[in-house]
Amino acid sequence: MNDIDQPLAGFLDLGIAELGVRFDPDGCRKLLALARARREFGPHLFLSEEEFRGDPQLLGVSPRPGRNLIEPFDEALAFVEENSFFRALLDRLLGTGWEILRKKLVCAIPEAWMPSWLLAHVQDYGIPNLGPFIRPEYRDLTYFHGIDFHQDLIDWAGRTADFVTLYVYLDEVTPTQSPLHVLPGSHCHGGSVFPLAVERVGDCLWRYTDDRGRTLDLAEQVLTGSPGYAATWHPCVIHGTRPNMGARERLSLRYLVTRGPGGGGLLDEVNALIDGPLRLEVTQRHRDALGNVVIKGNALLGSPRRG
To answer: Is the entire prediction scored with pTM above 0.90?
Structure first.
């Protein structure tokens, strides 16, 4: 077993690898300082209820090229992207010639910052992406308030599972600060349309029923960690977060990286073992064509599905 195979042990069977602290904590702190120098975080990020209801913009509010806080930060991101572990990891997962598909900062907003009208408005939203409620000048990163169990295929209708997610904590993430909740092994039946049929059957045990009626009983893993902690997972692995009950924002770095043109990486081996679809033409049904949430409920928070 070589140096890169050891941290990736389990990816083949579980679809996820906890990598531990693999990136320089000082680099994390410098990136955080740059982000916070460009963005003062706090309750002022939000539109008022009158502003939102007067001109609701439900779609097109996520970061994109030209509107992405970390686009000018190439030098500050070198502690990740020029790290020999980062490159060896992705070569092993995706084959040589891989490409970064998307990178951005993800912010778990403290619940205490959210106005009461907004908390009521997004109650039981499965995926409360807060972008529509954020002032337009601040929509250059992604803001969440807890996320129900989902697969990363959700944003990629019509695309094959040819990418992995790499997630890096930039600050200390404790159980109250919206850590990732993951169901290792949930990828083995391929993709299902969101919202997923997941129900709690024990303290840390969940039953997932895929779109073909097959069930898996899966143990939950909560990913807490220090600055520089990282994990990587397959796009069919089910994961989510609870709301941030801490006093400050939780900022993390999220990469989506697609396979090299020749493949040959561990992702191809995992995909060959999956008994289910690796591509979905429709990935979600909780919103209508205008972006309105029409199916509510959040399995991770114990609220029943309705709509």
So the answer is: yes
